[in-house]
């Protein structure tokens, strides 16, 4: 199943305990994605989009099933190994930007590499220039607009030149005009060969991605392979 | 993270003041202890009445030195724990973000510890400096409140600084451990889910 695929997700299940009851965030989900694809995950709140992104980025591990990115089986890695994998291979973009308020735009872009021996300041400046913020590198997040903050977050996600970019509601907290600019930036990154997965409610974002997957109740209901049989039924 | 100390400067100053007060207390107390030790180490012949009184002070100091050192260590550790816990709790989303973008437990812990280390260094250094400045004035301070007679000798030597250093290191490590353990127990995705 994984031949030629960059991302292979097989039968992942994840149950969270919320307020004394179990909630199936992911329910036997299968998914494959080729390198260089741009894909959106759509679906109502609580359908499992964020949980799936967390699994793909190695932030969380499934109770059952496997997640393979390239040749790396994420479920077999320790937490420390997954953190190292994220730093080198995955760029995370969040709905609320998640910038460090006491650091300037430039310093925020440099956060993922702050413990590296390499001096990445020039690359960080290049990335800020690329996202149109070269004149704002000394500004704190509080002095930037929502769109500018998201662009700083995108520059931060790109600092290590990751092959996979995961964005959770990247346009959920910005105006529609800025959202269009952000989506154009994503398209540009995608044209350079980066694989993007965007969890979104925004139809504009979905309409401009190459593939749109719809989720409901922890399963893909459109755009993905058939749901697997429950673990107990397999034999 | 060090910049956050300035963002919460009133708390930082409060914590540093507590640390400075403890450092001052340790310096003065152990200087008196060291001074008395030195005074009686080279004393020969029959002691005077005042020296007998001073010897009583030394006896009390000997039995209290360890207790004061332990109490100061506990108080110092509590200040560190309290400050670090608040610092970490307020920054839980930032910490989770750092973890999410690939920083290891160790790296995030080092960031947190570095800001606390700075507080400890500034607090301790200012308390120790205040103690060092005060020591000459307190040296030979009269034993009786009425003044006159034999004074209490003070000796600010390397053993005093070593004791202070040891207390700060032990208290710093003990104080930082609980908040760091608490910080690393929760997964970043659990914290970010609560945004």
Describe this structure in words.
Chain A has helices spanning about 50-55, 80-90, 105-110, 120-130, 145-160, 175-190, 205, and strands at about 5-20, 20-35, 40, 65-70, 70-75, 90-95, 165-170, 195-200, 210-215, 220. Chain A has about 240 residues and is an alpha/beta fold. By secondary structure, chain B is mostly helical. Chain B has one domain (about 10-40, about 50-195). In chain B, strand 1 and strand 2 (about 150) form a beta hairpin. In chain B, helix 3 runs antiparallel to helix 5 and helix 3 (about 50-90) runs parallel beside helix 6. The longest helix of chain B has about 40 residues, at about 50-90. Chains A and B meet through helix 2 of A and helix 1, helix 4 and helix 7 of B.
Features of the shown structure:
heterodimer; A: 235 residues; alpha/beta; Rossmann fold; six-stranded mixed sheet; four-stranded antiparallel sheet; 29% helix; B: two-stranded antiparallel ribbon; 2 strands
């Amino acid at each position: 199943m994984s031949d030629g695929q960059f991302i292979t997700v097989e039968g992942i299940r994840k149950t969270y305990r919320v307020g004394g009851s179990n909630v199936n965030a992911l329910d036997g989900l299968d998914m494959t994605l080729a390198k260089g694809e741009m894909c959106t995950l759509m679906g109502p709140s609580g359908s499992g989009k964020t949980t799936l992104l967390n699994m793909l980025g190695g932030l969380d591990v499934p109770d059952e099933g496997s997640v393979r990115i390239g040749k790396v089986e994420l479920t077999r890695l320790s937490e420390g190994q997954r953190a190292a994998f994220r730093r080198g291979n995955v760029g995370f973009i969040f709905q609320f930007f998640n910038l460090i308020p006491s650091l300037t735009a430039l310093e925020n872009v440099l956060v993922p590499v702050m413990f590296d021996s390499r001096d990445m300041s020039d690359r960080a400046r290049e990335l800020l220039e690329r996202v149109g913020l070269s004149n704002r590198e000394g500004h704190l997040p509080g002095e930037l607009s929502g769109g500018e903050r998201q662009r700083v977050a995108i520059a931060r996600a790109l600092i290590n030149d990751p092959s996979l970019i995961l964005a959770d509601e990247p346009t959920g907290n910005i105006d529609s005009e800025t959202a269009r600019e952000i989506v154009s930036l994503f398209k540009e990154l995608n044209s350079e060969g980066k694989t993007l997965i965007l969890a979104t409610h925004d139809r504009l974002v979905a309409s401009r991605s190459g593939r749109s997957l719809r989720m409901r109740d922890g399963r893909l209901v459109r755009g993905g392979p058939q749901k697997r049989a429950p673990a107990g039924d397999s034999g | 993270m060090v910049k956050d100390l300035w963002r919460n400067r009133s708390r930082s100053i409060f914590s540093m003041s507590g640390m400075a007060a403890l450092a001052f207390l340790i310096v003065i107390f152990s200087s008196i202890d060291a001074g008395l030790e030195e005074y009686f180490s080279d004393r020969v012949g029959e002691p005077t009445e005042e020296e007998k009184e001073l010897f009583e002070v030394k006896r009390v100091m000997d039995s209290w030195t360890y207790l004061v050192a332990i109490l100061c260590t506990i108080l110092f550790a509590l200040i560190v724990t309290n400050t670090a816990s608040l610092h970490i709790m307020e920054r839980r989303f930032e910490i989770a973000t750092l973890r999410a973008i690939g920083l290891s437990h160790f790296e995030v812990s080092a960031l947190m510890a570095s800001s606390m280390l700075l507080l400890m260094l500034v607090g301790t250094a200012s308390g120790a400096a205040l103690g060092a400045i005060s020591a000459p004035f307190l040296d030979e301070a009269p034993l009786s409140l009425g003044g006159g007679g034999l004074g209490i000798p003070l000796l600010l030597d390397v053993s005093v600084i070593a004791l202070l250093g040891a207390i700060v290191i032990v208290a710093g490590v003990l104080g930082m451990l609980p908040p760091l353990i608490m910080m690393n127990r929760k997964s970043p995705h659990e914290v970010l889910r609560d945004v």
